Amino acid sequence: MKNTDNWKKQLKADPTDWLLEENDPGVRYLALRDIVEAGEKELADARQKAYEEGPIATILDNMNPEGWWVKPGPGYLPKCRSTVWSIILLAQLDGSIQEDERIDKACSYLLDHALLKGGQFETRGNPSNIGLCLQGNLLTALSDLDCKDKRLGIAYEWMARRVTGEGLPRKLNDEGFAPNEGVPGPFRYVKYITDPVFGCRTNDNLSCGWAAVNVAMAFSRLPAGNRTDLIEKAIYINTEFFLSVDSSKAEFPGHRKGVPDKRWWQFGFPAFGNDVLKIAEALTDLGYGNDPRLANTFDLIREKQHEDGKWLMEFAVPKNKMWVQFGQEGEQNKWVTLRALRVLKQVYS
Predict the structure, then answer these.
(1) Which of 69, 95, 84 is nearest to 147 (CA)?
(2) How many domains, in total, are found in the chain?
(3) CATH number, residue 249
(4) Residue 125: what pLDDT?
(5) What are the phi and psi torsion angles at 315 (to 5°)?
(6) Are residues 115 and 60 in the same domain?
(7) In this predicted model, what pLDDT tens digit does every residue of 274-291 receive, in sequence order?
(8) Is residue 329 domain-resident?
(9) Based on the domain organization, do 202 and 318 belong to the same domain?
(10) Quick count: other Cβ atoms within 10 Å of Cβ 193?
């Protein structure tokens, strides 16, 4: 193992040994890879055990051989067991097409049934129901699962258009194209994405910070060489949305109730929702981890660490909605601790 422990001086205590316990093969493998930087042989053994005995195995065992979960179709409902959420979860567990052909099958199924030709992920067979939250979540997940399908490029370009407002259509046909693109109708109004810079109907047409986090995370997965000028512009708008304010206090615009949602400060796993930790993860992956405007955000992450080095599960998806349970609210949690350690290591190594 490599000695890369200097960054740990900022921690109240080192929880690495806890993460490496044999009874949690999924989190153990990721800790060996991302925190310890273990050798190739040890990693290979841990990866195999994670796939055979960890949460990935349970999720894949519940997949239909055709590539969907619960019921065929676009796969958004029911949360959080349907195709969409199972794929997002597999990605957060470090699933990969290269490791299991069933994941490849699932990615192909999702793209065939949920992605319109215009580049939009839709939820219920209706192009008017598209949203940037879903777009960002699925582009992140598919990229992390090592999906290389060319259709992802179209989806990224569409997402950039929605952020910048360039060529922002109000209507789409059933394939995701606008009237000015020379395609037949009928056309339907886009219900939820109302304005550039994350304007969302669900959020009273205000900018939506939840969408902004998911979009930033997705853009961070796109190699610099694959970013068009439009995408670079969208990334700038996206990062300034968070960096122009104190993100540790969720001071960015768009709180429809006048105050930020308390869930911004409730760290959890899986990251189906969003929190301040996810803002740090996304902006760090985009190369802004050392930006002084994020200093308060990283201070907050460190402050949440307990004296024994562990972080709590502050927000958990209800047990009856998940294929796998990742911990109880209010208890120390390995997955949340891993999330925090990874981003702190990226910034302070």
Answers:
(1) 95
(2) 2
(3) 1.50.10
(4) 66
(5) -140, 120
(6) yes
(7) 999 999 999 999 999 999
(8) no
(9) yes
(10) 25
Residues 11 and 130 in one domain: no
Q: What is the DSSP string of 197-235?
A: TTEEGGGTTEE-HHHHHHHHHHHHTS-GGG--HHHHHHH
Do 109 and 29 lie in one domain? The reply is: no
Residue 333's CB: how many other CB atoms inside 10 A? 23
> pLDDT above 70 covers what percent of the chain?
98
Is pLDDT above 60 for 210?
yes
Does residue 349 belong to any structural domain of this protein?
Answer: no
Query: What does the block give as tokens for 188?
Result: 């339907």
β-bridge partners, 324 = none
Closest C-alpha to 296, from 248, 230, 239, 345: 248
Comparison of pLDDT for 160 and 191, the residue scoring more: 160
User: Is 5 within the bounds of a domain?
Assistant: yes
Same domain, 48 and 83: no
Nearest to 142 by CA among 54, 83, 78, 58: 83
Buried b (16+ CB within 10 A) or exposed e, 194-210: bebbbbbebbeebbbbb
At residue 188, the pLDDT reads 84
* Cβ-based neighbours of 333, under 8 Å, separated by 6 or more: 269, 310, 311, 312, 313, 326, 327
182 & 236 share domain: yes
- Per-residue b/e over 144-171, b at no fewer than 16 CB within 10 Å? bbebeeeebebbbbbbbbbbbeeebbeb
**How many CA atoms lie less than 13 Å away from 276 in the CB half-sphere?**
28
Closest to 84 measured CA to CA, from 133, 119, 45, 37: 133
Task: Please state the pTM of the whole predicted model.
Answer: 0.96
CA angle 262, 266, 269 (to 5 degrees): 140
**For residue 209, how many C-alpha atoms fall within 13 Å in the half-sphere facing its CB?**
27
User: Does residue 20 sit in the same domain as residue 154?
Assistant: no
Residue 33 domain boundaries: 1-53
Which two tokens mark 88? 């997002």
User: Do 40 and 112 reside in the same domain of the chain?
Assistant: no
The mean per-residue pLDDT over the stretch 182-208 comes to 83
- Residue 328 located in a structural domain: no
Question: Residue 16 in contact with residue 335, Cβ under 8 Å?
Answer: no
Measured from the Cβ of residue 287, the count of other Cβ atoms closer than 10 Å reads: 12
Q: From the CB of residue 312, how many other CB atoms can be counted at a distance below 10 Å?
A: 20
